[in-house]
Amino acid sequence: MSREAIIERERRWAPIAAIACFAALALLIGSLIARTQLATSSNSGVQLSHFNDHPGALVFSSALSTAGFALFALPLAFLFTAARARNPRVQPALIALCFLGPVLIGIQGLVNGLGLRSAAHQYVSQLPTEQRQPLSKAVTDLRANASKIDTVNVYTDANQLEVQLNNGDFYWVKYPQSQEKQLIGSTDSGNASAGSSATSGSLIGKSGAGTSFDSGGKQGDALASNVADDNSTVRLGADLLFPAALAMIAAMIYTALQSYRVGLLTRFFGTLGMALGAALILLPQAPVLIALWLGWLGLIFLDRVPRGRPPAWDAGEAVPWPPPAERGAAAGGKGPIEGRASEVGTAGGEASNPPRQPGERRKRKRRR
User: From CA 296, how far away is CA 24, in angstroms rounded?
Assistant: First the structure.
């Protein structure tokens, strides 16, 4: 394809890709705003209760995020196509990642939101069945019926035990601080800190039952985690996370790298795109940063960035950036300077310091 054809094609598609950038930016920011209506908590039970109180906000936020990431596919594919037109080494089959990654990420978020809404309703419905029992029942079960216990969840700050039985039932007990050391082998009374596991000499350690320690946990957390883990929709969302994130990371890193190499993106902006792609599953704020990156990308498509966009867009061919060393030399004035030079003499046309003949001594002036 000729340079003119490349420029003409990008001129037609650039406004559409830019609109998709700005729409995706608005949807992803809107998803974040909608998510702020949902309180966050480190306790699984409290979190699911909040989701059950605001199911509409949960699903609406997930839907906005899904639409935003789906729209992300269009500008990413447009950028990939522009890089491919300037470098035949860009693998054309990999454009599929530009669609697969954003769409899968969006679907995963929607499936996870729907699953959490279902799990939250199920948790609130089952919570009344988790009865409080006296400490003596837990002690009896640990000593005589340990085989019926699946897991003993220990919440040291709240002085609570949440017991999960093998048949799926739960009950919880409140224990006095004075008996904590007998139960788990350590205590957090005074300036001491409780251990993260039951000692072999403690009541729970001797029982052989499975244990889980959460110093900040409270009654209902184990039930909430169990309900969420058993929810088929939540499990589907979890299964989709890895392939979706992998496709999205590969799409962003490869497209940003190739676009930088042909001069469509600056070093900073291309590197930022690659970093945001890699941080997608590591940084909770990554979707918001990706949205802002998208907004700036839309301005590049429209040539509305300060100091203009990179010259490769208007050239219709690759205009690679020079290596940093060459750019630094040019900026520092260490390169060759073009122009004419002539020797400057005195007013009389003779040099002010004419060269001495061989053997001639230099005359010195005497001081008076």
Answer: 12
Which residues of the chain fall below pLDDT 70? 187-195, 324-368
Q: How many Cα atoms within 13 Å fall on the side-chain side of residue 24?
A: 31
CA–CA separation, 285 and 279 (whole Å): 9
Residue with the two structure tokens 């520092």: 332
CA distances (Å), 367 to each of 49, 177, 179, 364, in order?
102, 102, 106, 9
Please give the helix or strand (H or E) that residue 212 lies within, else none: strand 210-213
pLDDT tens readout for residues 224-262 = 999 999 999 999 999 999 999 999 999 999 999 999 999
- State the pairing for strand pair 170-174/131-132: parallel
Contacts of 82 (CB under 8 A, 6+ apart): 6, 10, 259, 264, 313
Strands of 170-174's sheet in order across? 131-132, 170-174, 160-165, 149-155, 210-213
Do 108 and 43 contact (CB within 8 A), yes or no?
A: no
Residue pair 87/47 in contact (Cβ under 8 Å)? The answer is: no
Cα–Cα distance for residue pair 314/319, rounded to 1 Å? 10
Give CA–CA dist 73/295, Å, rounded.
14
Integer CA distances (angstroms), 146 to 26, 156, 210, 368, in order = 55, 21, 10, 117
pTM of the model: 0.79
What pLDDT sits at residue 240? 94
The SS3 of residue 160 is: strand
Residue 234 CA from chain centroid, whole number = 20
- pLDDT score at 191: 45
Closest CA relative to residue 109, chosen from 247, 289, 238: 238
What are the helix (H) ranges across the chain?
A: 3-35, 44-53, 55-86, 95-126, 135-144, 180-184, 203-207, 221-230, 232-261, 267-278, 286-301, 312-315, 324-331
